[in-house]
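Hello Y.,

Per our agreement to keep a running log of every chain we model this quarter, I'm adding this entry. I've kept the format consistent with earlier entries: sequence first, then predicted structure.
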Amino acid sequence: MQLRPSIIHQTIESAVSFIYPAQCRVCRNVIGLESIPYVCDTCWENLEVIVPPWCEICGISNTDGVCADCATNPPKYGKLRTIGIYDGTLQQLIHLYKFEKRTSLVKHLVQLIFKHLPEDLPIDEYDYILPIPIHKKRLRERGFNQTTLLAEHISKKSNNPILRDALIREKNTSPQSGLDREARQTNIIGAFSLRKSEAICNRKILVLDDVFTTGATVREAVKVLWNADPIEVDVLTLARAVNPI
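Predicted structure for the entry above:
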């Protein structure tokens, strides 16, 4: 039996961490063997999660009812919810997972999602989980789609199927993280195309993404999905930037 590269990578990571206990990537204290990889227990427990009140639609913090932006320019998704603030511990974890390919962290990130999943976003009520796709060129370079891997673990815990290859990343856009707000909006236009419309029609879809910054990627993806006439499209993201550029 041939092992998947991700399994081999995780095994090597675990062995190295056992032999050479590392420093916490946030506070730089030595990590004990009981900790999750790369982050100490204290930083993990102090990770900043998002709690109510939040906008009923976009989920932005410290808002009762509907925020001014959603009231004047309602998004096409029904509601968007996020687990934590993209800063400090969570930002370090996502960078390690996404850019340094520390895929063993995925189970801890999914644990975080289920621990702090908002009550008004019951995953088991959706027909499909749809991870935001990345372009095939970036997939080859990175070796995995970080959001699809999250979705696979969420699917195992929730028994919700993943809708694969229904939304396609046709345009190999510049990384959104290197652009300002205006450039993000124009960069993502036309990036997605739709396939398997019949799987989306009359279904409740939960779109999954790792980081919400300005929301340009999510809005473009949801706009395309509505061409297939779903019943509902909501969004769940792992992290949200506090002051996006």
